[in-house]
Amino acid sequence: MKIALVSTGGTIAMAQATCQDVSSLSYTAEFFARELAVSHGDDIVVVNYSQLPSSHFDSGYSQNLADRLMKLQTEVQGIVITHGTDTMEETAFYLDLVLPNAIPVVLTGAMMTGTQPGYDGVINLQNAYQVVREPNSAHKGVLIVFNRDIISSVHAAKVESERPCAFGSVQTGKLGAINGNEVLYYYETKPHIKLENHPNGKVFLSKLHCDIEPSLVRYCCGQVDIVIFECFGGGRVPPKLLPIIEDVSRDRIVILTTRVFGGHLYDEYSYEGSYHYFLSRKVIFSPLNSLKSCLLARLCQGNGMTFNEMKKAFEGFFQ
Question: Which of 7, 116, 210, 225 has its CA 20 to 30 A from that of 319?
Fold first, then answer.
């Protein structure tokens, strides 16, 4: 089996040199390939794509990476990507939206650097390699493998900033797990919209809080093409923001999601600023979290979608 090992940087590629107090980027794809216990007959193709912390990445980076992976997919039977954890969930979801489900694509990384006790990079890398080799990994979309868990990129979220259990999936639970030499899957993923690799548009993301300043929100909304609000609970907005949303939605895309980690927007209350209030307004209700909503919105915009087409792409994402 021919497998591409693509290195992009991140903590998994970092180590602390002698007499240094902090870690720096040190490891390349060749280092990771040497650390892998490769099955007999497998061929590892190393690709040093970048040497950066993932906090430096944006959707333009993901767009270029996706272009490179599309070419690789014609040459190999699986792809493992080492990546920083800060934006791993965003890169994984972006790739899932634009790459065909032709071969397994798995992202992994580490929370400890190579010279820290308990470095988790090698075991995560080995597990990612196991998942890519597993025949049942085909057609499941882009996956994240971390701390022996397999997580769909659609539901993945970074849930821990320090410890090895960095990624979780509150809405559905993990997709599967690595148990010794076994790769186990608990349920099947659902198909979703695929888009051309063309992101476009400026996005303003606002997390609502009880003392949010309307004048600041109005100003920021005026600088962008797409506005995404993390609403209270199941889709509630304070009345002081309603005139702004009404004005902004006339010539910009307005998307509502929830600031709560689990659950979705839903219709239950009739009061001003509730989900029900927005049913008669020009807004889009997103079943995705805000980070994924930003990426889907930019890709919809770049694919030339109308408001109604974008609304269908969001609100029908899990249907």
Answer: 225
List the one residue out of 130, 122, 135 whose CA is nearest residue 150: 130
What CATH number labels 203-315? 3.40.50.40
Q: Where in the chain is the domain with CATH 3.40.50.40?
A: 203-315
Query: How confident is the model at residue 98, as a pLDDT?
Result: 98
CA dist., res. 221 & res. 1, Å (int): 50
**Residue 95 amino acid letter:** L
pLDDT of 23 reads: 75
Residue numbers in the chain where pLDDT is lower than 70: 18-21
Where does CATH 3.40.50.1170 sit in the chain? 2-185
Give me the CATH code for the 2-185 domain, please.
Answer: 3.40.50.1170
User: pLDDT digit string (tens) for 166-202?
Assistant: 999 988 999 999 999 999 999 999 999 999 999 999 9
Question: What is d(CA 158, CA 90) in angstroms, rounded to the nearest whole number?
Answer: 10
- DSSP, residue by residue, 224-291: -SEEEEEEBTTTB--GGGHHHHHHHTTTSEEEEEESSSS--------STTSHHHHTTSS-EE-SS-HH
Per-residue pLDDT, 319: 85
- Two tokens at 242? 């309603």
In contact, 121 and 110? CB cutoff 8 Å? yes
Round to the nearest angstrom and report the end-to-end CA distance of the chain.
35
The residues annotated as belonging to the active site are 11
